[in-house]
Inverse folding.
């Protein structure tokens, strides 16, 4: 009997060792297929309180991608948290100033990548790639009700006093685009005026707040991979930063100013989840029967707490100056239900909305579920939809039309 027990124990040990051997072999095989290496991309420099110049290289503080500043924008930020002391105390303890964060970082920036793709920023560790849904309206065909109302004074977004802050138009390194949780086609505009269904996007552009800039320097002449980098910037070793804007960049900015301009930014925090909204006017479609005005809005969700949360539903209210109030509900956003964890705390996306009036308002809530099972509605701060004089033609880029992406807004 004792011998049988001993044989049984040996058999169990052999099976365990066999499983460990399989795991080890799988691990070795995986490393052989996806080996990692470190490569220096530059060195962090001290953050600045004043405005950064065109050509400054940086890492994004939240999403970790490498980028370069094209030009600054001045925006008025309406932060509802500033009028709520409890929200200030909750958020101030979870964030530090850019200068403090810079001092805690090592001076040498190293990135990890596999041999099948170029290096990506070291802070980018997400295995998730956002779906290509940058042009999908938040809920096509999901309007639940449309009713006539008198006014919308109860959702005036300007009831909060705005503060002027600096934002930047930037280029994103295309090597990092697949690894960040933000849509990388953040600039869109209306296309051919003879068509009423086309949207165009310029890939690899983003708007970044001053406090999200982590500047660094590089000795490379072309440290960033983007098809517009060499068309917009030129290497100037004697300059600081050593990249200066070309005439093509200045001409592009002047030509497309109405489509690129950001004027208002809206923020609000609920249950340690901060929502930031930036609306953009895209133009008007004229038809014999009516005029349709289009806007794009960029939304960032950021988890400031210690527990993970997942976005489950959206609930929008869209008020038009024509006197209609539309209610829209749906699952997730742009086909996703992102999880905001302490390791990957933020998610950013863009969508579009149209009105048959030159102005209106949007506001609503996101239904979020915390990892402990608690669900709550996170407020989306009210923001205005304001049109501009449509006295210019469709925008152009410094590249050929083949570099632009075209999508049907009904997708």
């Amino acid at each position: 009997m004792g011998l049988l027990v001993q044989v049984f124990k040996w058999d169990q040990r052999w099976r365990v060792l066999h499983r460990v051997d399989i795991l080890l072999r799988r691990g070795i095989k995986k490393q052989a297929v996806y080996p990692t290496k470190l490569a220096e991309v530059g060195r962090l420099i001290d953050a600045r309180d004043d405005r950064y110049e065109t050509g400054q290289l940086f890492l994004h503080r939240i999403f970790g991608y490498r980028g370069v500043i094209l030009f600054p924008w001045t925006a008025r930020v309406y932060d509802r948290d500033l009028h709520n002391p409890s929200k200030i105390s909750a958020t101030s303890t979870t964030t530090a100033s850019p200068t403090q964060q810079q001092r805690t970082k090592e001076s040498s920036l190293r990135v990890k990548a596999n041999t099948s793709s170029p290096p990506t920023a070291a802070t980018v560790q997400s295995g998730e790639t956002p779906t290509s849904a940058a042009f999908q309206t938040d809920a096509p065909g999901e309007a639940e009700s449309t009713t006539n109302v008198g006014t919308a004074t109860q959702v005036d977004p300007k009831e909060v006093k705005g503060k002027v802050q600096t934002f930047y138009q930037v280029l994103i390194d295309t090597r990092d685009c697949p690894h960040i949780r933000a849509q990388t086609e953040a600039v869109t505009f209306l296309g051919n005026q003879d068509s009423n269904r086309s949207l165009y996007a310029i890939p690899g552009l983003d708007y970044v707040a001053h406090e999200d800039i982590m500047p660094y320097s590089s000795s490379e002449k072309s440290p960033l991979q983007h098809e517009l980098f060499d068309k917009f910037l030129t290497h100037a070793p004697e300059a600081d930063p050593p990249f200066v804007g070309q005439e093509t960049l200045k001409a592009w900015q002047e030509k497309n100013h109405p489509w690129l301009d950001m004027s208002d930014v809206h923020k609000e925090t609920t249950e340690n989840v901060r929502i930031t909204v930036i609306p953009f006017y895209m133009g008007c479609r004229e038809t014999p029967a009516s005029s349709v005005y289009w806007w794009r809005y960029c939304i960032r969700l950021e988890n400031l707490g210690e527990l993970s949360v997942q976005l489950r539903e959206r609930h929008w209210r869209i008020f038009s100056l024509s006197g209609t109030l539309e209610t829209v509900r749906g699952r997730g956003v742009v086909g996703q239900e992102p999880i905001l964890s302490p390791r990957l705390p933020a998610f950013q996306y863009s969508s579009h909305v149209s009105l048959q009036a030159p102005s209106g308002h949007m506001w609503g809530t996101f239904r979020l579920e915390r990892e402990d099972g608690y669900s709550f509605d996170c407020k989306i701060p009210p923001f205005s939809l304001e049109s501009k004089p449509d006295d210019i033609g469709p925008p152009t880029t410094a590249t050929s039309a083949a570099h632009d992406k075209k999508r049907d807004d009904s997708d």
